[in-house]
Amino acid sequence: MSYSEQTKKIYHDQLEAIAQAGLYKQERFIHSPQAADIEVEFPAGSEAKKVINICANNYLGLSSHPAVIKAAHEGLDSRGYGMSSVRFICGTQDIHRELEARMTEFLGTEDTILFPSCMDANAGVFEAILTQEDVIISDRLVHASLVDGIRLCSATHDTFKHSNMEHLEEKLQLHADKRIKLVVNDGVYSMDGDMAKVDELVALCDKYDAMLLIDESHSSGFIGKTGRGTHEHHGMMGRVDIITTTFGKALGGASGGCVSGRKEIVAMCRQKARPYLFSNTIAPVVVAGVLKVLDILSESTERRDKLERNAAYWRKGLTEAGFVLKEGDSPIVPVMLFNAKLAQDVSRDLFAEGVYAVGFFFPVVPNGQARIRTQISAGHEIHHLDKALAAFRKVGAKYGILGLTKQEIIDKYGQ
User: Fold this and answer.
1) Could you give the CA distance from residue 415 to residue 402 in angstroms, rounded to a whole number?
2) What is the pLDDT of residue 19?
3) At what angle do helices 263-272 and 118-129 cross, to 10 degrees?
4) How far apart, in whole angstroms, are the C-alpha atoms of residue 339 and residue 399?
5) pLDDT given at position 23
6) Helix, strand, or coil here: 145?
7) Which residues have a catalytic role annotated?
8) Pairs from 37-45 (Cβ < 8 Å, separation ≥ 24)
């Protein structure tokens, strides 16, 4: 047969090497709806345990909101389960265009096109609008989906040091002869939690006649005064040429994403973006849920404001406990451990204390940058945060890392 013992051994040895290096990733099985309190089976085969979830993208606590669930049921009843087709054939319903119009208004852009996910949006946009005559200049820490989308495009690709505007300007000068120059950033960086300098990016793009793309997946719904994103936070509404974002995090937590921006760019995506042309569109049940989320966000900033308070409380508590944190002012608060095995051990012991927080390590983050990425939600109450902080302090004390510097942790556990 074609799958030989030799081939099998190649994969077996690679998996064994991953495990020996302490880099093997294990899934946890959730037996409940996504929320601040969840029931998790870990390891596989064990009895599900009730724990506080401190590592989900459910920033606004809307994944299981009764009004969103009700709207999803109504969407299921009125528009069916799925489209069984792609958009340009017979896969577009009235509610898909309604959601595009609502997102355009919400983000302050000219037009919007839906994709099955933001990964699909990022996979499709570059190839649709750029050619080998053009250049993409991306921050070195942009999300993996942006990297993958860029790889599918024939444009020249260059990078600049993370959030370094002087280095970006050098690259814009270097590529001044290109037909189109596209600068690419995350709005909030998913692994580090820091925010892009959108105002400075816009100024540089204006100066060098470049376009700007921002992936707002970890900011749509809760960053900015009314939750529009980092472009609102920096007073740059209408100044970002392309925004990609997801409905799978704060905006309901199910699936789906979009490209929003200049109308000509959106039109090009409708004509040429392969994930749009060759994948089924978002299920009606999801569209109905996202529309209800936008209703909730238009009525009040209460959830966004609570999230901001919770994130500040959490960061303050971890800092006072003596953990090494990545700086930032988003709900993503990485607790830096630098060693992959240590990250997994800390995660395991936190779970034993009733706190669900996953260790991140290579290749999800660079070698030697292992961490517990904590993420705060408007669904958390202070009692959740206090219990989780107590668990972090107990486990941190067990491993003797409270109050240590980065170098001291590395000296103790390796990197």
Assistant:
1) 17
2) 85
3) 100
4) 12
5) 76
6) helix
7) 190, 218, 249
8) 37/384, 38/356, 40/351, 40/356, 42/351
Pairing of strands 332-336, 371-375: antiparallel
User: What are the start-end ranges of the E strands in 216-323?
Assistant: 242-246, 257-261
Cα-trace Rg, the chain: 22
**Got the DSSP string for 275-286?**
HHHSSB---HHH
Record the tokens describing residue 84, joined without a space.
């069984």
Q: What is the pTM of this model?
A: 0.94
Q: Give the mean pLDDT of 344-369.
A: 93
Q: 20 φ, ψ to 5°? A: -65, -30
Mean pLDDT score, 174-190:
97
Q: What angle do CA 203, 204, 205 make, to 5 degrees?
A: 95
pLDDT band at 45; cut points 50, 70, 90 = confident
Above 70 in pLDDT, residue 414? yes
Pairs from 364-371 (Cβ < 8 Å, separation ≥ 24): 364/191, 365/191, 367/415, 368/338, 368/339, 368/410, 368/415, 369/336, 369/338, 370/336, 370/337, 370/338, 370/339, 370/340, 370/342, 370/343, 371/191, 371/326, 371/334, 371/335, 371/336, 371/337, 371/338, 371/343
Residue 266 has pLDDT above 70, yes or no: yes
Distance of CA 264 to the CA centre of its chain: 26
Six token digits for residue 257: 């994403």
pLDDT at 18 (0 to 100): 87
Which token pair is 54? Answer: 């401190």
The CATH number of 66-299 is which of 3.40.640.10, 3.40.1190.10, 3.30.230.10, 3.40.50.300?
A: 3.40.640.10
Please give the single-letter amino acid code of residue 389: L
Q: What residues does each domain of the chain span?
A: 28-57+301-413, 66-299
Which residues lie across from 49 on neighbouring strands? 40
Alpha-carbon distance of 228 to 245, in angstroms, equals 11
Q: How many other C-beta atoms are found inside a 10 Å radius of the C-beta of residue 181? A: 24
Give the pLDDT confidence of 358-375 residue by residue, as tens digits.
999 888 888 899 999 999
What whole-number percentage of the chain has pLDDT above 90? 91
**Predicted local confidence at residue 1, as pLDDT:** 55
Average pLDDT, the chain: 96
If you classify domain 28-57+301-413 with CATH, what class do you get?
alpha beta
